[in-house]
Structure formats: structure tokens, C-alpha cells
């Protein structure tokens, strides 16, 4: 299965300022804007918003 630009790899950086990053893939057709998810930040010890960085 070839990788293409429809499902690029994106970094999700914590908004808590800890520098923690999740790496995931997203579907550009369904999510053309920047992705924002609430995930667990182990450095902060709680769930915070993670925003896509380019």
C-alpha cells in the first residue's frame, strides 16, 4: 500500500507547553483544517488539547 498525500503523517503538539507530541495520520478529505484532539499528556498528568502542527 503506497503512502500518498491524502493521509499525511501529522504531529499533534500539546497546548500545555510541555513539548509532548503524538504522531498520527489524518484523512485530508474529511479533515482539511488543522486537527485538534483532547489526549492524555503524561508530562502534565492530565488530558489537554493537542493541536496539529505543520
Automatic annotation (TrEMBL):
One Gene Ontology cellular component: ribosome
PROSITE patterns in alphabetical order: RIBOSOMAL_L33 (PS00582)
TM segment ranges: none
Pfam families in the record: Ribosomal_L33
UniProt-listed SUPFAM superfamilies: Zn-binding ribosomal proteins (SSF57829)
Alphabetical list of InterPro entries matching this protein: Ribosomal_bL33 (IPR001705), Ribosomal_bL33_CS (IPR018264), Ribosomal_bL33_sf (IPR038584), Ribosomal_zn-bd (IPR011332)
Keyword field: Ribonucleoprotein, Ribosomal protein
Gene3D superfamilies linked to this entry: Ribosomal protein L33 (2.20.28.120)
Ribonucleoprotein recorded as keyword: yes
Keyword check for Cell cycle: no
The family this protein is said to belong to: Belongs to the bacterial ribosomal protein bL33 family.
The protein's name: Large ribosomal subunit protein bL33
Species annotation: Streptomyces mooreae
